Amino acid sequence: MLGSITDVLMTLITNLYVSTGLLGIALAMAIESCCIPLPSEIVMPIAGIMIAQGKLLPGMNPFVSIFLVGLAGAIGCLLGSMLAYAIGYKGGRPLMLKYGRYVLISQHDADKADAFFKRWGSPTAFFSRLLPVVRTYISLPAGIAKMPFVRFCIYSFLGSLPWCLILAYLGYILGDHIEELSPIFHSLDVVILVVLIVLIVLYVWRHVKNDRKARAEHAALAAQNGHAPEFAQPVAPAAGMPMQQSWNQPQPQQFQPSQRPPQFPQQPPQSRP
């Protein structure tokens, strides 16, 4: 049962990669990097398996193929990260949390990425690309904190490239032994299916639980302090970055040199009795 499902899924992804080549890999990684849960741990190894089977970039040196696949994945990561950065830069946390729940972005995930970014600053855009969960959402707090765009792009690309290369290479090694492993997978169809269902249910349950808990904590803190919830506040700029006008702060009114600010009449002094 699971074997047939896996075969159908592999056929769909294989056809996508065969028809679109490196562009399809870049597109899949861009989707993952703009905070849509499409795990790179699946996307990149499948490309490596296809290289080993001669279905992707046939006739080319396998190590060159792995490098090109990893490069395409890193470019896709950069493009998706740029979109997430722009969302954080323009809309901030309120926009992210308002619509993020539809793509499984929880308050808990946002708090985790924010804390990581606040602690390590700009280099977070590099190191977070090698960490699960955080790597998917780190672009949003980077945009909210107004991290310099060029620096963000450089760190994101350099951090994504080794990650994509490692996953593609692991898929290539697995592809060399796929024929020996296939009978084992088919014999464990029911067990693997049950484990996958349990893991998915636990993931969704944990996601909803943590999101509700984090939102309740923010609401309680806001009620205690008498101001808007914390997720409505901007992330403080990381160390070494200039302080800039945040997205939810009032903009000062500017006057031309030939203009004078409006004069307000002074109230007459009140006589004492």
UniProtKB/TrEMBL annotation:
<keyword id="KW-0812">Transmembrane</keyword>
<dbReference type="GO" id="GO:0005886">
    <property type="term" value="C:plasma membrane"/>
</dbReference>
<dbReference type="InterPro" id="IPR032816">
    <property type="entry name" value="VTT_dom"/>
</dbReference>
<keyword id="KW-1003">Cell membrane</keyword>
<feature type="compositionally biased region" description="Low complexity">
    <location>
        <begin position="249"/>
        <end position="258"/>
    </location>
</feature>
<feature type="domain" description="VTT">
    <location>
        <begin position="38"/>
        <end position="172"/>
    </location>
</feature>
<feature type="compositionally biased region" description="Pro residues">
    <location>
        <begin position="259"/>
        <end position="273"/>
    </location>
</feature>
<keyword id="KW-0472">Membrane</keyword>
<feature type="transmembrane region" description="Helical">
    <location>
        <begin position="152"/>
        <end position="172"/>
    </location>
</feature>
<feature type="transmembrane region" description="Helical">
    <location>
        <begin position="63"/>
        <end position="88"/>
    </location>
</feature>
<dbReference type="InterPro" id="IPR051311">
    <property type="entry name" value="DedA_domain"/>
</dbReference>
<comment type="similarity">
    <text>Belongs to the DedA family.</text>
</comment>
<feature type="transmembrane region" description="Helical">
    <location>
        <begin position="12"/>
        <end position="31"/>
    </location>
</feature>
<dbReference type="Pfam" id="PF09335">
    <property type="entry name" value="VTT_dom"/>
</dbReference>
<keyword id="KW-1133">Transmembrane helix</keyword>
<protein>
    <submittedName>
        <fullName>Alkaline phosphatase</fullName>
    </submittedName>
</protein>
<feature type="region of interest" description="Disordered">
    <location>
        <begin position="240"/>
        <end position="273"/>
    </location>
</feature>
<feature type="transmembrane region" description="Helical">
    <location>
        <begin position="184"/>
        <end position="205"/>
    </location>
</feature>
